Amino acid sequence: MNGEREISQQSAGGTVGAIRVTVRGTVQGIGYRPALARLATRLGLAGWVANSGRGLELHVEGPPDRLAAFEQRCRSTCPPEGHVDAIQSAPAVVQLESGFQIRDRSDVAEVDTPVPTDRVTCPICRDEIADPQNRRHGYWLTTCSSCGPRYTILTGMPYERYATTLHGFPLCDPCRAEYENPEDRRFHAQTIGCPNCGPQVVDLPRGLAALRAGEVVALKGVGGYQLLARADHTAAIDRLRQVKHRPWKPLAIMVADVAQARRFASVDGTAERHLISAAGPIVILPRAPDMTAKLVACSERIGPGLNSLGILFPTSALHQRVVEEVGPVIVSSANLEGDPIAFRAEIADPPWPDAAVPTIVHNRPIQRPLDDSVVRAMGPHLAVIRLARGLAPLPLPLAAPPQGEHVLAVGGQQKVAIALVNGRQAILGPHIGDLASLAARRRFVEHVHDLLDLYGCHPTVVAHDAHPDYFTTRWAQDFAAQRGAAVVSVQHHLAHAASSVLQPGWWNTPVLAVTWDGSGWGSDGMIWGGEAWSYSLGAATRCCRLRPLRLPGGEAAIHEPWRIVAGLVAEIRANDPGFTALGFPTGALDPVFRQPLLCPVTTSIGRLFDAAAVLILGPDRLPGRRVGYEGHFAALLESACDPQAEGQYPLPLVPHRGIAHLEWEWDWEPLIRQIVQDQQAGLPRGTMAMRFHRGLAMALVALVQRQPATRVTLSGGVFQNQMLVQLIAQALVTTRYEMAWPGLIPVNDGGLAAGQTVVALATFRRG
Ligand SMILES: [Zn+2]
Ligand SMILES: [Zn+2]
User: Fold this and answer.
1) In CA terms, which of 87, 144, 703, 752 is 20 to 30 Å from 679?
2) 33 has catalytic annotation
């Protein structure tokens, strides 16, 4: 049915055109929509105008000359109370509207079907592209019913061609014949197209030549612009890091096939399955043991100090072409570190300082941005580190299907992703990123409105983190106030715990939820991050924590973990003046310790990891003694582990009586003393790193065995650590305790919103 409607620009009364107009600025709530409706009616045009997350959206149909007249007067129709920043207009599909309506946002229906996710080019399409006899030979944007972009090109639901950015590409006769033929593999393939009628790639040969020559090249991918550079070319990798302002954080390598992947990484059967999956995520794999000297040098630049590398297979046929022609390439989002991925026309005004980067583009518009997903094997399971292309939006397995509730949960401050419930379904949205920069905050706001629109969600409950200063907290409170929605403030680790029971489906049974991460606002105002909870039905009681440790200089200690070590040493020396640690002069930070405001305390296991990394690895392994990215030092310490090494550091459980419900505390002092002793005795780093991981795992297991609950969940960023999770699983395997492995919902802050949703629903349903 849509086959005819979407391409027909003819009607009985002569030529009719349609345009989609977006008006940005201060344009809502000022009577602009009625004014535009009057203008359209006067001109005899049909269509609608609606508020959107970006301002106003209009669909206008009628004779081309009158459409032009409408466009011309659009801006001057704005009432004086408002202000128009920009008007964009694009050809649209005639929908044979009658009359001109003002659409209310609440008209948007609750979407009850899952929004489809983007899928990498399928093997059959790849064969067609490679076949000189096929009419799609060499057409790098080939897609079919089972592959191609989805979420990134949707302008609305349901998923139909007129509701994608491909509506501007009317089908040629052969494509239309395929689309309408029930026997064809492209029957009703909404993204159908060919070299004659579909979007086109430009500047490919020039871009490929530049890449081969070792230059950094930008490429318009599926969910945004990417920066590419040869992965076997040290200068090219250095240049890419320089362009992106990203000195340390690991990069990912795109390879053509398993053979190319094996040049860099160990690929077993499970890893191969994840690599070739339709989602096509970046899979974190162990570095290949037998790499050439040249590739060792490259790998050290791609993942400095790490024993793992992120590998992905081609995302689209265009990417396939690039890696077949050039070999393995680094693929990274095209933006400065900390900014969101560029996806619109930003490429005309590139977000990086050096505009000389050659660009391979295509003219298929990207409706919404999306990064690559990142996953990691955890034993036999798959743990998602970054939920994005191919995996998001992710349906949330709630205990009961939504009963008409509309909820928005906004996540935290880092690795932000939102979750929503639209009365019919609950989903966790894709990774947006850290909200430190203004650009990232703008992207967050735009993203929330977009996803609410896409799902027809009108939140009556808004859930946010308990941290008063997070951008998402302040935004959520403001948004809820404007809409008269209820607000639920959810403690950071309660949200982690609540998210951890979804996947195993342990909704109604008590579990021991262990939440270890970098930092979260605790209910007592302290920074938490080393807790365990008796959790059930959206509520939790804290039963254990890490003995608090000091952060000399506050935030500075997170960037410079040697300060944490100085704090630990000083605290031990308070009772044992003879205690010293090599390389940590006593007394240097004494003035800081005397001022509590300069020296907050935390129970964070993430900070204990940082301190252990400083002591075990020593300054020469720690670039600039500063943390380069979140979890940096913990990742270095995990990479340093020697799995053959025996022994473990003591992290004893001691009874705690001071705070209500809190029964136990993990005491870090014996652990730090032992590390210092081993370090002074010159033990190999790999042994010490291994003993640290094993010590933490055993401390966790010791707590588990003192609890009535027989089910254990792990959440918080610390459990992205494969070594730690495996040690815990091994220790529990012979016991009566059952452990939930990290899974599709990220254990890091990317999964917070899922847990906030659960707590909000529990609060709402109880009240
Ligand atoms: Zn296909
Ligand atoms: Zn065609």
Assistant:
1) 703
2) yes
Pick the closest to residue 158 from 189, 193, 115, 191 (CA basis). Answer: 115
Active-site residue identified among 2, 20, 24, 33? 33
Q: What distance in angstroms lies between residue 370's CA and the mean position of ligand 1's atoms?
A: 20
**Residue 761, SS3?**
helix
- Per-residue pLDDT tens over the stretch 228-262: 999 999 999 999 999 888 999 999 999 999 999 99
Ligand at minimal distance from the CA of 189 is 1
How many residues does this entry show for the chain? 767
Burial of 607 (0-12, 13-18, 19+ CB in 10 A): buried
Q: How confident is the model at residue 347 (pLDDT cuts 50, 70, 90)?
A: low
**CA 92 – ligand 2 centroid, Å:** 18
- Amino acid identity of residue 253, one-letter, is I
Residue 92's pLDDT is 81
Closest ligand (CA of 197)? 2
Active site residue 673: no
Ligand 2 centroid – CA 134 distance (Å)? 13
- From the list 20, 51, 239, 563, the catalytic residue is 51
Three-class secondary structure of residue 388 per DSSP: coil
Neighbours of ion ligand 1 (CB under 5 A): 122, 125, 144, 147
Angstrom distance (rounded) from CA 765 to CA 711:
25
Tell me, what's the pLDDT at 767? 45
The pLDDT score that the predictor gives to residue 661 is 79
Q: Write the pLDDT tens digit of every residue in 685-710.
A: 999 999 999 999 999 999 999 998 99
Strands 738-740 and 711-715: parallel
Using the mean position of ligand 2's atoms as its centre, give its distance from the Cα of residue 135 in Å.
9
Residue 418's contacts (CB-CB under 8 Å, 6 or more residues apart) are: 408, 409, 410, 411, 428, 429, 432, 447, 448, 451, 753
603 vs 469: CA distance, rounded Å: 20
Residue with tokens 């004893």: 652
Which ligand places an atom closest to the C-alpha of 278?
1
Mean pLDDT taken over the chain = 90
Task: Kindly state the helix (H) or strand (E) to which residue 572 belongs, with its residue range.
Answer: helix 562-575
Dig out the tokens for 463 from the structure. 């859930």
Distance from Cα 222 to the centre of ligand 2, integer Å: 20
212, with CB counted inside 10 A (0-12, 13-18, 19+), is middle
Kindly report the pTM of this predicted structure: 0.85
The pairing of beta strand 359-362 with beta strand 329-333? unpaired
Ligand 2 midpoint to CA 34 (Å): 40
